[in-house]
Amino acid sequence: MRKLLFLLLAALAVLPAAAQEERPFDVKISNDEYKAYIVMNLYDKNLTVPGQEVLGEVEGYIASTQSRTAWIIISSEIIDGRTAEIEVVNDYGSEDFTAVVRLNDDGTYSYRKKNGSTLKFAVRGKWQRLPATLEFVRK
Asked: Mind giving me the DSSP string for 35-103?
């Protein structure tokens, strides 16, 4: 009986991890070096950008802990279970870019800008430009 109970508990402990693997693009990830983070749900597309609820539900956004601005994920395509292409526009609608987000084998995420504007945030009165490739971790 104890063995059965232990096996049942062990099986239940694995379920949340398996569920997250099945939805790798329903996540909040961050990069501590640039103090940037990505919040996305490319499946249900039901997120709201804090302070910009007037935009309604979106697929996600990219923001910085040092800035009030956000870049909104307006469309996406999940290429395979570990790779997605996102189209992003700034909160003014004046700049946009396309990027690829990939879940790596070690659980980190790779972000690579394909084309378009530079991802940047206003930090203490100056533009902080982020590189075209970044590593993010799940928080």
From this structure: TEEEEEETTT--B--TT-GGG--BSEEEEETT-S-EEEEEEEEEEETTEEEEEEEETTSS-EEEEEEEE
pLDDT in tens, 69-112: 999 999 999 999 999 999 999 988 999 999 999 999 999 999 99
Residue 126 exposed, middle or buried by CB count within 10 Å (0-12, 13-18, 19+) = exposed
Q: What is the pTM of this model?
A: 0.84
The whole-number pLDDT of residue 1 equals 56
Q: In 3-state terms, what secondary structure has residue 104? A: coil
Q: What whole-number distance in Å separates Cα of residue 92 and Cα of residue 97?
A: 14
Residue 89 CB neighbour total at 10 angstroms: 17
**In this structure, are strands 109-116 and 120-123 parallel, antiparallel, or unpaired?**
unpaired
Tokens 């956000």 label which residue? Answer: 70
